[in-house]
Design a protein that fits this description.
four-stranded parallel β-sheet, about 25% helix
C-alpha cells in the first residue's frame, strides 16, 4: 500500500513546481522560454551554489550549461534556505526541476518522520485493519521530547531495564556543533539485538532519487557504501560510542582507527550491484 500524501508528508505538501495560476501574479519566473525557442535549444541550463563533487558532475554532463547569478535555468540544485525563501514566490514552467520537495523536512527531520510513520500506521489500521497495521513494525517505539515527556516516562516505568537512545531531532553526529544548543530530541527504544557484520554494527548508505510521491516514483542508484563501528558490539559498554555509533565523525576519533583498514572496523566500504540505476 502506498501512503497518501497527507499520511507521508503532511497536509499541503507541494511537488517541485508552482501551480499555473501563479503565472500572472508578479512572481519571478524560470524556464519561461517559448515553445519554439525551447525546441531549438538543445542544452539544459543548470544552476547550483554548491562547490563540490556535484558541481563537477553537472559541468561535465554533455549538453548541460551552467547559469550564473540571476540567469534563467531549467534545473537548480538549490539549498534548503533558497527553497524556504523563494519557492512560494517563484513561478516555474512545467519542465523546470529543483532538488527538493517543498515539505522535505517531513521526512528528513527525525521527529516529523516518526510523526508521519505513526500517522500512516493509524491510517492503515482504519483502512485495512489491525492485522495489516501490525506489519508496520519496522521502527522502534519513539517519543518526541519534550512534548511527549510524560508519555515517555509512563513507558519507561512500564518497562524497566529497557535501554533508550536520545537523538537531536535535526542533526547527526557528523555535523553537531557544541556551541549550538539542542532544544528538541527523540527518545527511541534502543535495538538490543541488531544485525551485525563481523560482530560490529553497520549502516548502509543508499541513494534514491524520488520523482513523485503521488504516485510514488523513485529511482534507486545501485552503488552505495557501508559504514562500520570500530569496536565489536556489546551491551556491556553502553557508554562507548565506538561500539554503538557508525558515524564517521565519531569513528575516526578512535585511537585504533585506520582509514585504509580492511572492513569491518570503522571505515566506509563501497557496495556495488550495477552501474545502472534501477527504478522502484
Amino acid at each position: 500500500m502506498v501512503p497518501s500524501r497527507e499520511a507521508l508528508l503532511g497536509p499541503g505538501t507541494t511537488a517541485i513546481r508552482c501551480p499555473k495560476k501563479l503565472q500572472n501574479q508578479n512572481y519571478k519566473g524560470h524556464g519561461l522560454s517559448k515553445g519554439k525557442e525551447r525546441e531549438q535549444r538543445a542544452s539544459i541550463r543548470f544552476k547550483t551554489t554548491l562547490m563540490n563533487t556535484l558541481m563537477d558532475v553537472l559541468r561535465h554532463r554533455p549538453g548541460w550549461v551552467e547559469v550564473k547569478d540571476e540567469g534563467e535555468w531549467d534545473f537548480y540544485w538549490c539549498d534548503v534556505s533558497w527553497l524556504r525563501e523563494n519557492f512560494d514566490h517563484t513561478y516555474m514552467d512545467e519542465h523546470v526541476r529543483i532538488s527538493h520537495f517543498r515539505n522535505h523536512y517531513e521526512l528528513t527531520r527525525k521527529n516529523y518522520m516518526v510523526k508521519n510513520l505513526k500517522r500512516f500506521r493509524k491510517q492503515l489500521e482504519r483502512e485495512a485493519g489491525k492485522l495489516e497495521a501490525a506489519k508496520c513494525d519496522f521502527f522502534p517505539k519513539t517519543f518526541e521530547m519534550p512534548c511527549e515527556y510524560h508519555l515517555f516516562v509512563e513507558e519507561f516505568r512500564k518497562n524497566p531495564g529497557i535501554t533508550w537512545i536520545m537523538k537531536p531531532d535535526t542533526r547527526s553526529s557528523d555535523d553537531q556543533k557544541d556551541d549550538i544548543p539542542v532544544e528538541n530530541y527523540v527518545a527511541q527504544r534502543y535495538i538490543e539485538n541488531p544485525y551485525l557484520i563481523g560482530g560490529r554494527k553497520f549502516d548502509l548508505r543508499v541513494y534514491v532519487l524520488v520523482m513523485s510521491y503521488i504516485p510514488l516514483r523513485a529511482w534507486l542508484y545501485r552503488d552505495g557504501f557501508a559504514r562500520f563501528s570500530n569496536t565489536r558490539f556489546t551491551l556491556n559498554s553502553i557508554d562507548d560510542q565506538y561500539v554503538h555509533l557508525t558515524n564517521v565523525a565519531v569513528q575516526k576519533t578512535s585511537p585504533d582507527y585506520h582509514p585504509k583498514k580492511v572492513a569491518p572496523g570503522g571505515q566506509c566500504v563501497p557496495i556495488t550491484d550495477s552501474q545502472q540505476p534501477g527504478r522502484l
